[in-house]
Amino acid sequence: MNSYCSMPSVLGDITLQANHQGLLGAWFEVHTTQPEQLGKHDPEHTVLREARRQLEQYFLGQRRVFDLPLAAKGTPFQQQVWQALTTIPYGHVWSYQQLAQAIGNPKAVRAVGLANGKNPLSVIVPCHRVIGKNGKLTGYAGGVDRKQQLLRLEGYLEQ
Question: Where are its TM segments located (predicted)?
């Protein structure tokens, strides 16, 4: 059974979803990857409560790495890309090309971009840290403005 809750953040409300295995999703209200069915509203679910706590710390600048059980659903290729995203350090960015190289498939730049865009764990699995090879802030399911704000929060972009 899936459970969910919402929380406010400096970038807008975030909906969190989890099951007994871990966190399934974290979406801003405009995210294009949010499922229609979220499950039972349960803000006291252990994983959801911990995810809220860690996200609050992140937005206050007190957390750089998330330590949560993750259970996002995706293809094996998507899972591989999402795992690689978790290795991009706080305050740094990679190009889609670098991400493709990190998974050992340097010709899969477009496929990596598509998998990155399907990441259901916004902020926690930091797809916002991937930018175009030319340095442009391209695509973000939560909106490029949020991507820019997240990179500012992490100190990559100037305030």
Answer: none
